[in-house]
Amino acid sequence: MRIGLTYNEKPESASAAEPPSTNDAFAEWDDPSTIAAVEQALGPCGSVIRLEADQFFPQELALARPDLVFNMAEGLHGQSREALVPAICEYLNVPYTGSDPLTLALSLHKGRTKEILAFRGVPTAPFASVQTPADLERVALPFPVFVKPIAEGSGKGVFADNLCETPARLRERVRFLLERYAEPVLVETYLPGPEFTVAILGNGPEAACLPVIGLDFSALPPGAPPVYGYEAKWVWDRPEAPLAIFQCPARVPASLYREIERMALDAYHALGCRDWCRVDIRVDRFGVPNVLELNPLPGIIPDPAMNSCFPKAARAAGFGYDELIQEVARIAWRRQTGRDLLADARAHVAVGARHAVPAQAPIPA
Description:
Mean pLDDT: 91
Oligomer: single chain
Largest sheet: 6 strands, antiparallel
Radius of gyration: 22 Å
Distance between the termini: 40 Å
Order of helices and strands: EHEHEHHHEEEHEEEEHEHEEHHH
């Protein structure tokens, strides 16, 4: 079995070992340590082939022809960048893990995500998408509001001071985000309640939530707004001084816990997610959980000190890191073949051993 591993690696200057800053250009990409950990975890599934999702990826994939691609690539450019690797896999008829190009493109675009959720009856905060500062004239949302780039992930552009209490503050932040990210800005009603994130594994009726993670904003620095954005993820939370921000399982009443799980699964199915996804949820002023966004390419940093949500939920469910990565690959393989990946990998090894050319005996001198 040949397993392709698709990824985008952070440049050395942007690695986790560097001092934190507000330069979030490569926040979505993975550190070398994460890529190596996933490669090691996939080892029992077959021979792992690294396939960096750069300009050479299409020809590299065509030459490698893996039996399955484990996709963790964020893509290079554009608002549909997360869809590019799966689209190329489909073009070459190569099976891959995770959601298809349509779901990845829709879920990265937060405005399109919210439109679909609203149409399907999944609660999400009232919102507006603005492409120019002049568009703010038609925004009729009550203050406070929260703003963020419409097609970024991993906390990019989600800063603590994006919480806007006044029209003047809103105009200032929208101008800043439009100039910096060159894409529309999402303006949404601020939800004052607690926040949660839900890791989901599986497909169809078998899709299930791992233990729900609750966010404890009292762990943030004094005076910081209760927002889990770029600073909380990459500046204030460091391996040498981790934020005690997560509770897993979340300590909430059982009724709210069940409602959070139901809402996460409703969103998962509404967007057509496959194999795995992380759903971010926040409670509104009426006590109703609302879906913030979906992350069908969830972060999977292996170091427990780094507060990576999906591995944290998996550990609470009894999965080690390697087991989590293998389970995602097995779910994807089962979805596409109806068979077990590890059993097929062992069968390939056995067939290869039977057909191996025996070593020749040395020729006598």
